[in-house]
Inverse folding.
């Protein structure tokens, strides 16, 4: 039986609003169609909100219990973003040995459960020695899974002493920022590395139910809490895409989606303190669904692209890329059909919004 429910604490409302998480919640996406994982464990007798936690390796030994263990706190942070996603304890993911004959917990212990449960994302906060051989193992597994994302906390050393697993290109490394007066400020303790991909918020409030009441732990700092938040955002995005297309995004498409919706908070473009920037989720109704159904630079815009005349393809692609015109629910453009008044209104509204965005950028 669940010990409590995944209540969305009002103390975190400002974080959900700032990161766009509330936009997905308001549209009905809470991660319900998605299964994620954590690299830590704890006793589910102490924490199992809404019976959403799965324990393939058996019940944890209680490190993340009501006294404020790291595993349950990071899990509680995740549920503040994706409160209806299932969460699997994959504690053996960090078991590894470097060298040519390296042992990889992700491959040897966790892969069967990732496939069985259909896990699309995992968040981890651990340090391990990761040479080129182990990095290649992780790379091979993640590439083979296709729709799997691994979010790893960058570290809290205020220097270039980052978590070495960041060396793996397929791993998404997460730094931290906090929100003050509706402005994102990079945490000064985040590790600085050329391998950093994105930053996400920390300082979330987490709570645990007890027979004597509710124990509150306020403002959890560290990249350990930024990683589960970004993982939760990925679950919301996949929840949306499963609803619209029947399948989650590929790892490549998820990273492209994140980069497309990134906002700089450090130096312009990529930098070693904040990576590509912070991800801000858009309004789900404004997402160009089919843009993320092919590989980056792919030729296919719509399922019936071969029916579009060559002289029109360049302009059709332009309208597609800028969200002015989109395909139907089946991913078709229907180039010979007449537009309805509803479709024309939607297209004109998108064009108007695009123009307004350009004007706003010019006035900054």
């Amino acid at each position: 039986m669940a010990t409590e429910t995944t209540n969305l604490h009002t103390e975190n409302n400002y974080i959900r609003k700032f990161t766009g998480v509330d936009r997905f919640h308001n549209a009905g996406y809470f991660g319900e169609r998605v299964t994620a994982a954590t690299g830590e464990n704890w006793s589910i007798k102490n924490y199992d909100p809404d019976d959403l936690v799965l324990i393939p390796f058996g019940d944890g030994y209680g490190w993340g219990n009501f006294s404020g263990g790291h595993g349950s706190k990071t899990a509680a942070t995740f549920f503040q973003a994706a409160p209806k996603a299932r969460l699997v304890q994959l504690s053996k993911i960090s078991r590894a040995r470097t060298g040519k004959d390296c042992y990889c917990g992700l491959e040897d212990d966790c892969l069967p459960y990732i496939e069985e449960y259909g896990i699309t994302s995992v968040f981890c906060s651990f340090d391990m020695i990761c040479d080129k051989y182990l990095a290649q193992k992780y790379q091979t597994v993640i590439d083979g899974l296709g729709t799997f994302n691994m979010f790893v906390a960058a570290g809290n050393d205020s220097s270039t002493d980052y978590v070495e697993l960041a060396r793996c290109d397929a791993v998404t490394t997460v730094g931290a920022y906090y929100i003050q007066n509706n402005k994102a400020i990079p945490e000064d303790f985040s590790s600085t590395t050329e391998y950093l991909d994105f930053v996400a918020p920390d300082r979330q409030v987490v709570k645990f139910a007890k027979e004597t009441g509710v124990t509150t732990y306020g403002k959890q700092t560290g990249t350990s809490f930024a990683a589960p938040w970004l993982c939760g955002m990925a679950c919301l995005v996949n929840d949306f895409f499963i609803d619209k297309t029947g399948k989650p995004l590929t790892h490549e498409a998820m990273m492209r989606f994140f980069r497309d919706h990134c906002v700089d908070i450090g130096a312009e473009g990529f930098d070693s303190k904040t990576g590509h920037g912070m991800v801000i989720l858009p309004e789900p109704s404004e997402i160009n669904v089919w843009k993320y159904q092919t590989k980056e630079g792919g030729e296919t815009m719509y399922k019936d692209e071969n029916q579009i005349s060559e002289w029109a393809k360049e302009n059709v692609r332009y309208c597609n890329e800028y969200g002015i015109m989109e395909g139907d629910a089946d991913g078709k453009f229907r180039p010979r059909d007449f537009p309805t008044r509803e479709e024309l209104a939607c297209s004109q509204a998108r064009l108007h919004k695009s123009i307004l965005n350009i004007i706003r950028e010019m006035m900054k």
